[in-house]
Amino acid sequence: MDVPINAVVVMGVSGCGKSSVGEAIAKLSGGRLIEGDSFHPKANIDKMSAGIPLDDNDRAGWLQRLGEELAKALEAGQKPILTCSALKLRYRETLRSAVPGLGFVFLELSREEASNRVAHRPGHFMPASLIDSQFAALEPPTGEPLTLTVDATLPIERLGEMAADWMKGNSQFSRSA
Hints:
Layout: E1 7-11, H1 18-29, E2 32-35, H2 42-49, H3 56-75, E3 80-83, H4 89-98, E4 102-108, H5 111-119, H6 131-137, E5 147-151, H7 156-170
Parallel strand pairs: 1-3, 1-4, 2-3, 4-5
Helix pairs in contact: 1-7, 3-4
């Protein structure tokens, strides 16, 4: 029996559009957007702001906290849509262990396009110089369960619709809470 999707993570490298697409999905699905970046501890933000990539140890507590936020939202009867890079399989497994039926929408983007977007993004702590480290860490979720891969260069509205349609066919989102 397939496990229904109870919550969704919008994932990908920096600059792929996680926040914008997550917001579009939340609006279309009646979900609650949870911005993963807002849960980074100050030390992580300081490190990234200085152009130093995070390592697995830096991300461990952050991912644990995100899993707790997902579980808390589900317990409150909400439909959580989390934005989180979730670059490695082990990061996704940490999140999956926190909540059953966690789906992932992977916003696939080229290195060149990601660099261009990040270089022109105002007011974010992630510098364009860290794009290479993001791609070095990226383990695409190919073949993983409950995963939708989309071209992140499509219009935000279209990406939101694609994800919302996919979720409706596989989820608790379309059922009464």
